[in-house]
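Page 42, continued from yesterday. The earlier attempt failed because a stray header line got pasted into the input along with the sequence. Redoing it now with the clean sequence only.
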Amino acid sequence: MNLLLTNDDGFTAEGINILARRLAVDNNVYIIAPDSNRSAVSQHITLTQPLNLIRVADNIYSCSGYPVDCVTVGIQSSLLGVKIDGIVSGINCGANMGTDILYSGTCAAARQSVLNGIPSIAVSVEFINPKNRKNEKLKYDAVADFVAKNLKKLFTLAKTEPPRAFVNINALSLDSYKGAKICKDLCIRNYGDSVAAVHDKDDRYHADYVMGNGNTPCLPGTDLTVVKEGYIAVSLVCADPVGLESVDDMDFSL
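This time it went through. Structure tokens are written below.
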């Protein structure tokens, strides 16, 4: 298969390069990834200025834009000169579970893929101790091997017709796993973040985003719980907006 790889950590990130080497054993692998870290950019797309791309090696390009930009260039332009059969986003440094998916550039790239009719997978590895992540070196090899061994099965889970959906994979940073579980239920994060507004002088202010030490509940069967139990969590995430029905009829005034 012709595979396009991207991420939101940048083209030099260890996760995407380990994944690329493993997938290249049986596939034609192309990389278009941001030229620097673009974490938590969600579905950001560049519309008002050109994207700058640099060929840094054979079939590897850095992009001045965002993960969604990398996908659109790879599948909607003539840059690669091939038809892409599937897209894999990651392996991300840190989890993308539950509420994380809303903010994640890694997941946004996978979402953009199925919105354009191409099956996709987002892959992330979680720290053993997320609150001390600066002192932990992540292990990507076992997850990369899982994706490679199950690539076709995982792509068949993705849905490219409405309601479209991408496959989201999360796992702890381990050398091996107890197995893989499909998770219907996703965690609801409690981040505990805050913003500090500071008065500099006169009419000038600045605001600092302060990361919190949230405590997300580990409910049975959720992706977070499955990952903490030593399994690989596989979730199917809807890419199309889903509206909820109103419980009661409501009269609106005009």
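Notes: DSSP finds seven helices and eleven strands in the chain.
Reminder to self: strip header lines before submitting.
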